[in-house]
Amino acid sequence: MSNLTPISFAETDLEAIAGHLGRVAVFIDAEGKLDPGARRVNRLTKGAIARLIESERWSKLKDGDSLSLAYPAGMAADAVDVIRIERNAKGMAARKAGAALAKTRGGSADLLLLCAPLRHAHEVVYGLAMRDYAFEQHKSAESTRTGAVVVMTGKPEALKDACAPLLAVAEGAHMCRDLTNEPANVLTTTNYAERLKEMESLGLKVEILDEKALAKLGMRTLLSVGQGSDSPSYVVAMRWDGSKKDEAPLALVGKGVVFDTGGISLKPGAGMEDMTMDMGGSAVVAGVMRTLALRGAKANVVGLVGIVENMPSGKASRPGDVVTTMKGDTVENINTDAEGRLVLCDVMWYAQEKYKPAAMIDLATLTGAIIIGLGHENAGVFSNNTSFCNDFLKAAETEGEGAWRMPMGDGYDKLLKSRIADMKNVGGRAAGSITAAQFLGRFVKEDCPWIHLDIAGVASVKSETALAPVGATGWGVASLNRLIADNYEAE
Ligand code: BES
Ligand code: MN
Ligand code: ZN
After folding, report:
1. Which of 279, 284, 196, 278 is nearest to 239 (CA)?
2. How far is the CA of 257 from the centre of ligand 1 (A)?
């Protein structure tokens, strides 16, 4: 089922403009040249568009900004949105214009886009689809988000085709946001696994490993995180085999802590509710898998998520406990709040043992320290392979998702030395995000190109971003999809 606003495509029909309800959007470049659609709106409104583009306010608009005419005489619409945009605007400029339209529309009004003058209308539509999101599942009032979007242009079929893969990304990002926004009493570990299983209807192969299976595989560190919770732990593997060739897959691994209390090393109460988003890494993995399936990507990708809840109880792990990983190394659990790495290390090891991936990327809301370092603008990027890392950074740059490479090295690795086990799960206050990455790096095989994305600062935010409202952003779905499209689908 699609969770996007319905968007349909039609040939420009000048006769239909006057009677369209809701809002009508026209696109005009800096020179103020009107295309036939804008000319028609201008004529219907007895020259209001022409006056608007001669006004001082118009001359002060930046590219992508807009002005609105309310209740225009001569039209049935409630408003005309006039967007200042270059005809060949693309990338973020075009996307932001679409996002601005989604915002002014607020989800409720029908919207007609007169896109004929735009060379990259698909990017405007994509920006609109990405920004047109609200998490309303738990509002008791009936949703007002009922409006539909009609895109008029010269070649509607071609535009529809150009939009299809982008709308698949928007759907993946929206799914990622829905999961990340969902509270932990609703998105329990079992509910989460069930939701992922539902993606089989898209052609993905989804396998759920329960606690019995995980114990048999030896994923004791993952199980040690979940053992304080009444909700069972799972690993879910989602496979998309879109390449005709028998290629080794790209493995995506996600941290899926549905709630992180810190465990016995309990977090302070203030702000703890934010830890419903501690499954954000796994939600990106799920969102990417959805996108790949929806657009029929010609690549082999396997997404694996470790789903657990970190709770304090009589059965919970204690600080000082020593547990053995699936790999066989032992870990002294100094701080039960450093649980994400304990989940990931077993899933990453399993991913390599079982799928022999060509490369591996893990995503996790792993450390508060990455927020201190990079704020909410950039995810931390850690890698053992510069060319692979650069491929990702380029994809992220193209998609306008902030990503910044961080260092790794033996000096940091030493900080994980334990007196009684092979390693500790924390390295002290210094370089907290890097020592977390070093911990994970110990579970990456020598020849496996690997990227670790610490998304604690970007997965869910308190002020809106270019293409997302406050709350879960869906950061990473577009970049990873782009990485796959550019590097794993070459025929
Ligand atoms: N889930 C948190 C990290 C986090 C913090 C995510 C803020 C999103 C926003 C993680 O499990 C955690 O608690 N990390 C500890 C590690 C420490 C104990 C070494 C942290 O960052 O304080
Ligand atoms: Mn924690
Ligand atoms: Zn956590």
Report:
1. 196
2. 11
